[in-house]
């Protein structure tokens, strides 16, 4: 009987310790937090503007764009899209790009510029892939209209 009680105690202790170990695991931070928050996103957008404005493959698309208007909207868009507290109040991606006739090649060129920018800031591969997946999912809403 004493052996049975010892065995039951050991099982209960194992289950209890296992439950404690499981419950202390912290949930993963949002992409926003892992990127470094709004300050980091603001720096990325500023750098990206410099890269894209010098890229002859796409800079004509930005010829009439005012950086002081475009940048805050893009910052809010990326902030909200990455799980941050910002609220993007601009148009949806389709409406924002109607009439621009953005080609798949131009979209891909901007994606390359984004990668250059993320690499400049040494964004880890996991976060870089998440950013690119988020932006890549918008391609159908942005091109050819």
Secondary-structure map:
Layout: H1 2-23, H2 31-35, H3 37-53, H4 67-81, H5 93-97, H6 104-120, H7 125-136, H8 139-142
Overall average pLDDT: 88
Question: Fraction of residues in helices?
Answer: 55-70%
The CATH superfamily bears the name: Globins
Task: Give the number of helices.
Answer: 8
State which percent range the strand residues make up: under 5%
Element pattern in H and E:
HHHHHHHH
Can you count the beta strands?
0
Low-confidence stretches: 1-14
CATH topology: Globin-like
Question: Which radius of gyration do the C-alpha atoms yield?
Answer: 23 Å
Give the oligomeric state: single chain
Largest sheet: none
Structural class: mainly alpha
Alpha carbon gap, first and last residue = 79 Å
> Architecture, according to CATH?
Orthogonal Bundle
Describe the structure.
The chain is mostly helical and 145 residues long. It has one domain: Globin-like. The chain is globular. It starts with a helix and ends with a helix. 14% of the residues are buried. The N terminus is likely disordered.
């Amino acid at each position: 009987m004493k052996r049975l009680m010892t065995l039951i105690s050991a099982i209960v202790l194992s289950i209890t310790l296992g439950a404690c170990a499981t419950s202390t695991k912290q949930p993963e931070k949002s992409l926003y937090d892992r990127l470094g928050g709004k300050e980091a996103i603001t720096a990325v957008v500023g750098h990206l503007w410099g890269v894209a404005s010098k890229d002859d493959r796409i800079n004509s698309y930005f010829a009439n764009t005012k950086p002081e208007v475009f940048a805050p909207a893009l910052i809010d868009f990326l902030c909200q899209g990455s799980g941050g507290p910002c609220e993007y109040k601009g148009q949806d991606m389709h409406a924002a790009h109607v009439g621009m006739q953005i080609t798949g090649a131009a979209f891909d060129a901007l994606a390359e510029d984004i990668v250059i920018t993320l690499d400049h800031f040494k964004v880890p591969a996991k976060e870089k892939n998440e950013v690119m997946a988020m932006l890549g999912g918008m391609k159908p809403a942005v091109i050819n209209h």
